[in-house]
Design brief:
Elements: H1 7-23, H2 26-33, H3 41-50, H4 68-81, H5 87-98, H6 105-114, E1 119-122, E2 138-142, E3 145-156, E4 163-170, E5 173-180, E6 186-190, E7 200-210, E8 215-218, H7 219-258, E9 260-261, E10 264-265, H8 270-297, H9 304-330, H10 341-353, H11 358-374
Parallel strand pairs: 1-4, 2-4
Antiparallel strand pairs: 2-3, 3-7, 4-5, 5-8, 6-7, 9-10
GO molecular function: acyl-CoA dehydrogenase activity; flavin adenine dinucleotide binding
Family: Belongs to the acyl-CoA dehydrogenase family.
Keywords: FAD, Flavoprotein, Oxidoreductase
């Protein structure tokens, strides 16, 4: 695969990085920690102007019709800046809705693209694996509509979203529903998590009644749609981890060049050089694995599940090793609340667990290899 960026992609990266440099300071991120705002509304408004949520929407539906690699490039930059935006959940939901036949498709995609609404994906459940086997929320027919009952966890930015994409079991099979976040019976509460820079929520669905138009996909279509969403979300979380790793490397190299000990910059010591070299190798390998997975997702020539699991398993571990080295090389200052390092470390730990941790994806890879051997 060719990892060279096109001129259009370079423009997307440059414009995104410029916006984040101007509007996404870490001081602003710290202000959001103790506020009721789930994300930086002003930054998101500017991001909508650049077309961030429209990237995942087909041109026929009023979007920009870009591929997964373009979404990943934006996610990398958001990770580098530790931005608090609903980018990942909104584009993941927009992608799923755009590939569905729901009667609400045009209206929902327009609102997401224009930034008048955000969306969140309610999938994970407490104590359950990151797979369809972990879904216990149910949907039952009632009149011309449906009744949803269950609970979801770690739903990013659900407390500020207008639309929830909910996965549930309908007659024993996965079905996908578009649910207004303010529907009677929907209760949303923010979780206290390690990542203090972003909002993750518990979502309870207590006999939530929705109309027939809420059904986004069922049967085989829902299976294919969920597989796509699982892969896309995983790639974008890995991409954000890549951006975090790149920023941690830059921070650490800059610090060891300036920190003087025994009359010399600590970066001149051989042991420190080796650690920085390891960090660079891990960051570069993570970038390659993630880009490959993103390109595979839009190609029919590659094993998508394999590429995505390899990327998430490797990147989750590698970037957290980068974070560990960064913390060690910063010394005592890296342990303080005032230093920004811990904010990146917190986001890295959270992202490593989201969308399936390294162990989960290694188990998937082992299961695939075992099935191939048997076959």
């Amino acid at each position: 695969m060719n990892f060279e960026l096109t001129e259009e992609q370079r423009g997307l990266v440059d414009s995104t990085r410029s916006l984040l440099a101007a509007k996404c300071s870490l001081d602003r991120t710290r202000e959001l920690i103790d506020s009721d705002a789930g994300f930086d509304v002003e930054l998101w408004r500017h991001g909508v102007g650049l077309g961030w949520p429209a990237l995942a929407i087909a041109e026929d539906d009023g979007g920009l019709g870009q591929q997964t690699i373009d979404l990943a490039l934006v996610a990398v930059e958001l990770g580098r800046s530790l931005a608090a935006t609903p980018f990942i959940p909104s584009v993941v939901v927009a992608d799923a809705i755009g590939r569905s036949e729901t009667a609400q498709k045009s209206k929902l995609l327009q609102s997401i693209s224009e930034g008048t609404a955000t969306a969140s994906w309610a999938f994970a459940e407490y104590g359950q694996p990151w797979s369809r086997a972990g879904i216990s929320t149910t949907a039952e027919p009632r009149g011309e509509g449906w009744v949803l009952d269950g609970a979801k966890v770690s739903v990013q930015d659900a407390d500020t979203a207008q639309t929830l994409l909910v996965d549930a079991l309908l007659e024993g099979r996965v079905a996908r529903f578009v649910v207004p976040a303010d529907s009677p019976g929907v209760r949303i509460g923010r979780q206290a998590t390690l990542d203090v820079t972003r909002s993750y929520c518990d979502v309870t669905l207590a006999k939530v009644a929705v109309g027939a138009e809420a059904l986004c996909a069922s049967g085989d279509l829902a299976d294919a749609s969920l597989n796509r969403t699982l892969a896309l979300n995983t790639v974008l979380v890995a991409a954000e981890l890549v951006g975090i790793g790149q920023r941690l490397l830059d921070m650490t190299v800059g610090y060891v060049k300036e920190r003087v000990q025994f009359g010399k910059p600590v970066g001149s010591f051989q042991a420190v050089k080796h650690k920085c070299a390891d960090m660079r190798i891990w960051a570069q390998a993570s970038t390659a694995a993630t880009y490959y997975a993103a390109l595979a997702l839009d190609s029919e020539k590659h094993d998508v599940d394999h590429a995505v699991s390899v990327a998430k398993a490797y990147v989750s571990d590698a970037i957290n090793r980068v974070a560990g080295h960064a913390l060690q090389l910063h010394g005592g200052i890296g342990f303080t609340w005032e230093h920004d390092l811990h904010l990146y470390l917190r986001r890295a730990r959270a992202d490593a667990a989201l969308s399936g941790d390294a162990r989960h994806h290694r188990e998937r890879l082992c299961a695939a290899l075992a099935a191939e051997a048997v076959g």
